[in-house]
Amino acid sequence: MKNHTPKQVDWNKQMADTINALTLIADENNIPRDTVAEALKDAIIKSYTKEYPETIVEVDIDIDNKRLSIHQLFKVVEPNDELNDYAEITITEAQKVDPKLQVGDFYKKVIPLQELSKLSLGMHLAQMFKHNVTNQSNKQVFTQWKPRIGEVVYAEVEKVDAKSGVATVNLESTFGFVGRQETIPGEILIPGQKYNFYIKDVKEQTKGWPIILSRADSGLVKYLLTLNIPEIQEKIIEIKDIARVAGFKTKLSVMSHQVSVEPAGTIIGPRGSRIKNIQEQIHNEHIEVIEYVDDFKQYIVNVCSPAEILGFAIKEPTTPEERREITLVARSDKLALLIGKRGTNVRLISEMLKANIEINTVEEAHEANLQYQRVDPKTLRQQTFNRAYKKYHVGGDVLSQYNRATPHSGKGTDVPPKSSVQQHVNAVKKSKDSIMQDFKDINKEDLLKELMDADTTKTISDNIDESNNEDY
Questions:
Q1: Residue range 324-337, pLDDT digits in tens
Q2: Residue among 227, 256, 229, 228 at smallest CA distance from 240
Q3: What percent helix, strand, coil does the chain show, rounded to 5?
Q4: pLDDT for position 458
Q5: Which residues partner with 303 through β-bridges?
Q6: Which are the contacts of 311, defined by CB distance < 8 A and separation ≥ 6?
């Protein structure tokens, strides 16, 4: 009859193999070996104390020589009736083993490695090691990616969680994630497809992926503008301010460093071709371009356009922590355009001006006795029309020579003789035909854009005929 004696396990060899395996994993993941040693030590201590809660355990690991020793610690005490056999030992018993021990010292009792077979060490070891690997990996990602905040990466969407809406993005060496609030409303990110993502933040954390990506940040639009507009790359045109409500509108102000380059029109492009190309990359979001001016009061009017304001009051901050407070005054029938859908416009205006914005109607401003600086939008529109006319009209205005006072004006100007009346009529007709031909040669879309920038709700004739003071 065969003797079925249990096979003896070489625990020293088994533990050496375990340490070796963990060391190899650590080396592959660029994790310091001390981290591996701490992970293994913590796992053993937690496993042992879970099985024997009152015990005190000390673990020593020599990671390079693949050696491990475990000791249970007993505090040396005077003999007493309430001795804790799991954590205390009398001075008499302790000195039988080591005569040098005194009361208050710790007596170390070796725990054989085979005792580990009774513990749920494998589960705790796996958990602790996974935690340490993730922690160390995130520290490395933080160090590598933190300086890249503000950049844009072109990367593939790995997956999108149907419940939370969080998209996981493959960044090759690691992963980033896009929360629902960082997506463009209405846009569906498709796994397997690549998109531009703005690196919004890199967090120092111990779980999850620390890289936060965004499709909703204004930095993405600024990047796309720079990428697609050579004049911005060459620093001929500068983006001064930009604000965005993703899915609705992006508003930006620009200035040109060359007199011959008109900034807004250059960015928009012929028939809007340049701006359309950018809009297609952000789910056809509306992009509004205005001209930047150094005069802050004039800049307020520009930022509010195409909405009309009648005036504004500025309250400067008293401390560095405070923001400017600007009260905009508008007619009640113009409030909807000024505020915008779901408050979009007023949010953009607030970001562009870096100020808290309050909106009053004329009646509210009067009741509050608000002292505000008045703005005449009609005059501004007429100025825009005049600039556009001068820009696109070829030659001088030949009709000006016939803009003469009548005898009834009191200036004593003579009426031209009858013999020259027909000549005048022919000249006027010829001048009119010449002007009409000039306007036929105009790039009508460019002219229309300039006029629309001045006012999107009224015709030119309305602007000219209305009284400038009717609102006051």
A1: 999 999 999 989 99
A2: 256
A3: 45, 20, 35
A4: 36
A5: none
A6: 328, 329, 365, 372, 373, 374, 375
* pLDDT bucket at 469, cuts 50 / 70 / 90: very low
CA distance 338 to 151: 33
pLDDT at 247: 92
Q: Which of 177, 185, 166 is nearest to 201 (CA)?
A: 177
DSSP string, 158-198: EEE-TTT-PEEEE-SSSEEEE-GGGSPTT----TT-EEEEE
- Which of helix, strand or coil describes residue 347? helix
In this predicted structure, what is the pLDDT of residue 412? 44
Q: What's the one-letter identity of residue 261?
A: V
Cβ 365 vs Cβ 372: under 8 Å: yes
What band does 135 get if pLDDT is binned at 50, 70 and 90?
confident
* DSSP 8-state secondary structure symbol assigned to residue 359: E
Q: Comparing 96 with 129, which gets the higher pLDDT?
A: 96
Rounded to 5°, the CA angle 61-66-70 comes to 35
Q: For residue 72, list its beta bridge partners.
A: 57, 109
